[in-house]
Design goal:
The complex is a heterotrimer of chains A (201), B (121) and C (316). Chain A has 201 residues and is an alpha+beta fold. Chain A has 6 helices and 8 strands. Helices cover 40% and strands 21% of the residues of chain B. Classes of the chains: A alpha+beta (201), B alpha/beta (121), C alpha+beta (316).
Chain lengths: 201, 121, 316
């Protein structure tokens, strides 16, 4: 089966993501009292192997938080939030916690959950859907655990639609990458939703 | 006499959304641009009355276009239509000379009333 | 069954806590799980501020956490892996766990009525079992990992781990152009010692050697058993002069006092090779082979001495 999105579908999905990103960033900016710099998201089709290769070569020291999402019409997937190590200590300030009030792990999980759910909630509204989430999980900062998790991922599916969104919070020069993975079984479902929107135009 | 309009957005869907939202009675001659650089090419080579401008784009983003318009003193009324609705961004584009900020997804009602507010049509 | 189903009949049988708060964090309702574990009736806590009923909650943290639910309308979570528990509730396996309180996964969810956020629903899941097994697993993994790097006889690092550590230190020293020295030493006439007094005596000498040398080293130094009676010491941030001092202390610590085996005093000594990282070393193996050659020269020049190949090009 061909999982690729055609040009119109890709364009439509990108615009939906853009709008979701914009509204989510606005909410975030108000909540965190800062400004979020938006860039154009990228959408690709990846194989399990390709994903672990692309993530593992980025940085030797990084942390990742994983959170599953699922909505109606078979829209589901997993959000990965990828952080460079040096950014971790800025998150506590950003979230408005006192030092020592929560550990770096908790901060990472908190900010990840906020980024993922604000974005996906807006996205869901646009496609007249509603999302449920699993609890976010920190995939240890140790390289071993990370590749184990990626291996597990690629065991569950061969191909996935991968959406990369970059969050840059300017006041804190904090940077993180949100990677949404929609496994092959759900790609058809998202295509159906996209086609319905395209028909309206 | 028809007005010359430029729609600049990297998304085909978004360009269509703007096109569809334009009032029917308004006679327009529409040109399209896929990013900031293309838009500047059009602006420099032909007189454009009204431009609808997206912000988050590849090559050159909307803020870059506004800065170039200001620097080169190009005469055009710019309406920003963007998903980046953070107050800081809205203020920034207005300071850079945009007529108004409209949030995505755009609908006909808002577009028409904004155009009327600014004495176009 | 008729259409009007009383859901509380079901939620009261859940083995998880459900706590409903209004936006001012007053308790609106909870299910039986909580009533039982807190040992208070709903009527007695209804309308009370959550911090009055659960004084153990970190108030500022809790308020900030809930703020994201109220302001963003999104769920937020708290896992036992980061915070063992939020609510001090007793658990049902008091004997086999080491904690007084139930380990918890908590979810904070927006509670809406007619599309408007009116409260927060807190779900409290008992994960004491998971927590218990996870910590057992962690402990076992730690022991396994340790066993994987330790030499069974001498209790210092085994060759595999030692070489990996050398590889890392080598890469680090190259990256930051910092000093790095390597010492390798070999017990003299060890085969003879084994032949004359038996393997038990040989083992004792190996153990004693490891223990004497370990006590001389810094935390950052990496000491391992390289082969039968050959040992290696990685000395990060150490130049040739510093390494030579260490080598001399190692040599002296070994040969200065004999061990007593079956009432007999048995003297032993070691030959020591030393090398310091320079630009000619492309791989860590190059450093090993230079140290090994120095060690070989120390042996052939009469044993119980230290040898460096480069610069001094002599034995001391």
């Amino acid at each position: 089966m061909a999982y690729e999105l055609n040009e119109d579908q890709q364009d439509c999905l990108q615009e939906l993501i853009n709008v979701a990103m914009g509204q989510a960033s606005d909410q975030l900016a108000r909540y965190l009292d800062t400004f979020v710099f938006l860039t154009v998201p990228s959408i690709d089709l990846v194989s399990g192997k390709g994903l672990s290769d692309s993530l593992e070569t980025t940085e030797e020291s990084m942390a990742m938080v994983s959170q599953g999402f699922f909505g109606y019409e078979g829209i589901r997937g997993e959000a990965l939030l990828v952080y460079k190590h040096e950014d971790s200590d800025r998150i506590g300030d950003l979230l408005g916690y006192e030092p020592d009030e929560l550990s770096v792990e908790e901060q990472l999980i908190d900010i990840s959950s906020i980024l993922t759910t604000t974005f996906l909630n807006v996205f869901a509204t646009q496609i007249e859907n509603q999302m449920s989430y699993s609890a976010p999980k920190l995939i240890s900062e140790m390289q071993g655990k990370l590749s184990e998790h990626l291996k597990q991922l690629s065991f569950d599916w061969d191909m996935a639609l991968k959406v990369n969104i970059n969050y840059q919070v300017t006041d804190y020069s904090f940077n993180c990458e949100m990677v949404l993975l929609i496994p092959e079984a759900a790609i058809e479902n998202i295509k159906t939703v996209i086609d319905r929107i395209l028909e309206e135009y | 006499m028809s007005s010359s309009v430029l729609i600049c957005d990297d998304s085909n869907l978004a360009r269509k959304q703007v096109l569809r939202s334009l009032p029917e009675q308004w006679e327009v001659d529409v040109q399209l641009a896929k990013h900031g650089l293309e838009a500047l090419d059009v602006l420099r080579s032909s007189a454009i009355e009204v431009m609808f401008l997206d912000l988050t784009m590849p090559e050159l983003d909307g803020v870059g276009v506004l800065e170039a318009i200001k620097e080169e003193a190009i005469s055009v009324k710019v309406f920003v239509i963007s998903a980046d609705i953070q107050p800081e961004m809205q203020n920034k584009v207005l300071e850079l000379g945009a007529q108004a900020f409209l949030r995505k997804p755009i609908n006909s009602e808002t577009l028409v009333s904004t155009l009327q507010e600014h004495g176009i049509m | 069954m008729n259409g009007e189903i009383e859901l509380s009949q079901v939620t009261d049988q859940l083995n998880s806590g459900i706590l409903l708060l209004d936006l001012q964090l007053n308790i609106v309702s909870w299910n039986r799980f909580l009533a039982v574990h807190v040992n208070q009736k709903l009527e007695d806590v209804k309308g009370k501020l959550i911090f009055d009923v659960f004084p153990e909650l970190p108030q500022r943290w809790f308020e900030r956490k809930v703020a994201s639910v109220i302001q963003l309308g999104t769920p937020t979570y708290c896992s036992w892996e980061q915070r063992h528990h939020l609510f001090e509730l007793p658990h049902t396996r008091p004997i086999t766990t080491d904690s007084h309180f139930m380990a918890q996964n908590c979810s904070f969810l927006p509670y809406e009525q007619e599309g408007k956020l009116v409260g927060i629903c807190v779900l409290i899941e008992d994960v004491t079992d998971v927590c218990h097994y996870q910590s057992q697993l962690k402990e076992t993994m730690k022991q396994l990992e340790l066993a994987n790097r330790i030499d069974g006889l001498t209790r210092i690092y085994n060759r595999k781990y030692w070489e990996e550590a050398l590889g890392k230190e080598f890469a680090r020293a190259q990256r930051y152009t910092s000093e790095l020295s390597l010492i390798m030493f070999d017990l003299d006439h060890f085969k003879k010692l084994n032949d004359n007094y038996g393997h038990q005596c040989g083992d004792l000498v190996l153990i004693e050697t490891a223990s004497r040398v370990s006590s001389l080293l810094r935390d950052a130094d990496v000491f391992g058993r390289y082969g039968g009676e050959e040992f290696g010491i990685v000395l990060p941030q150490t130049d040739q002069i510093g390494a030579l001092e260490v080598a001399e202390r190692v040599r002296a610590a070994i040969s200065n006092s004999p061990i007593i085996f079956e009432g007999k005093k048995i003297s032993f000594s070691a030959s020591v090779g030393l090398a310091t990282l320079n630009s000619e070393h492309k791989r860590y193996e190059d450093l090993i082979s230079e140290t090994d050659s120095a060690l070989y020269r120390a042996k052939s020049s009469g044993r119980d001495q230290i040898c460096i190949l480069q610069k001094f090009n002599k034995c001391s």
